[in-house]
Amino acid sequence: MLPGRPSSHSYRASGTSSRMKTAARQTKIRNWRSQFLQVSHLPPHTSRLSLLLFLLVVFITLSLTPALPVLAAAPGPCSCCPEERVLQLSDPPLTGCDVSDLQLRLAQLGYYIGPWHGIFDPATHRAVVNFQKEHGINPLGQVGAATWLALARDIPPVATATTAAPPADKSLKVIVDTDRLVLTILVDGRVWRQYPVAIGKYTSPSPVGEWKIVNKDYESGGTYGTRWMGLNVPWGNYGIHGTNRPWSIGWAASAGCFRMYNEDVETIYPWLPVGTPVVVKGEYVLPGAPLQPGYSSPAVVTLQVRLREKGFYLFGPTDGDYGLMTELAVREFQLHHGLKPTGVADATTLKLLGFPVATAGP
């Protein structure tokens, strides 16, 4: 089964009860919106505490409302790399992260000095031919199973010493530092284990924000290695998984996912249940245009972070989903600054939040 893809029975299991839960949640949200619009027209001298209490009630109610089954909304597999294919010169040229993985490894071995742009061009072809000549492979410039195996030789083995599992009934959290390329497992807030990872290339950056593991699966050892743990990133399919390109660990080499050595991901896989929080630290994407409810993007994460810093977004994760909690936080910020509480982060609101957004001229 592909990572993150629910089986047919999981859809059937969600069935009528899920639709009823969805309708109930939508009704509650409509009622909350109406109540907040009434609160939004309170006199200016009204204490901000009443607004904060209202937001807290909404957050607690959302937390206590039974969530929809995770599998019913689980995304499909990530787009880290296409399924295994033979790489060779073609017109138009083949492109993808499998090509950039190839270029990275050839560069590490001294056969390729060009950019890792993921385009199988003549320079990449020549580097492949030279590598194949020196490794007893028919030098046709085609990259198939034999060439991939030869490229993976001489990778230092990963330490396989027995690693104790975290104590039971403890709070677990995963922190991924995209600057240091390290994944850290915290147990009750303290460092338990750390592992090297590969992160997204600058053209396909990893998602910075606060996520949760929403699905898990075993893999056959191909593109996703031997394990998959999917994250609830709303604008794409991302996860923590193994790899059959171990030389990419420690580099910005993926299409946004977090690659680990198969041995490492197999170790941590049983420790981390669905629902485990995963915090990805890194550079934020600044909003370049107005944002509004219903949007999901890295810029929404940055908006949520800034609202939290200023004390308005207190009860939700920075998950890039411009939902009810983000809308209410924007409304509260607008009220606090004497703006019409639309809940839309327009250019004026973004500028007041400190973002360099251009506004229309007079």
Give a structural overview.
The protein is α/β, with parallel strands linked by helices and 362 residues long. The protein has three domains: 31-66 and 285-352, Orthogonal Bundle (Muramoyl-pentapeptide Carboxypeptidase, domain 1); 97-143, no CATH class; 172-281, L,D-transpeptidase catalytic domain-like (Beta Barrel). 33% of the residues lie in helices and 15% in strands. It contains nine helices and ten strands. It has helices spanning 8-39, 48-64, 97-108, 122-134, 145-151, 262-268, 298-309, 324-336, 347-352, and strands at residues 172-177, 182-187, 190-196, 199-200, 209-222, 225-231, 239-241, 252-254, 258-259, 277-281. The strands form two sheets. Strands 3-2-1-10-5-6-7-9 form an eight-stranded mixed beta sheet, covered by helices on one side. A two-stranded parallel ribbon has the order 4-8. Residues 1-23 and 62-76 have low confidence and may be disordered.
Question: In brief, what are we looking at here?
Answer:
The chain has 362 residues and is an alpha/beta fold. The protein has helices at 8-39, 48-64, 97-108, 122-134, 145-151, 262-268, 298-309, 324-336, 347-352, and strands at residues 172-177, 182-187, 190-196, 199-200, 209-222, 225-231, 239-241, 252-254, 258-259, 277-281.
Assign the CATH superfamily of the largest domain.
L,D-transpeptidase catalytic domain-like
Sheet bearing the most strands, described?
Answer: 8 strands, mixed
Strand content range: 15-25%
Please give the order of strands in the largest beta sheet: 3-2-1-10-5-6-7-9
Helix content: 25-40%
Q: What is the oligomeric state here?
A: single chain
CATH class of the largest domain: Mainly Beta
- Which regions are unreliable across 5 or more consecutive residues at pLDDT < 50? 1-23, 62-76
Output the number of helix runs: 9
- Please give the alpha-carbon distance between the first and last residues: 57 Å
> What overall geometry do the principal axes of the alpha carbons give?
globular
Query: How many separate structural domains?
Result: 3
Strands, count? 10
CATH architecture of the largest domain: Beta Barrel
Q: Fill in the CATH topology of the largest domain.
A: L,D-transpeptidase catalytic domain-like
User: Would you tell me the overall average pLDDT?
Assistant: 82
Which structural class do you get from the secondary structure elements? alpha/beta
- Specify Rg, calculated over alpha carbons: 24 Å
Topology as a string of helices (H) and strands (E): HHHHHEEEEEEEEEHEHHH
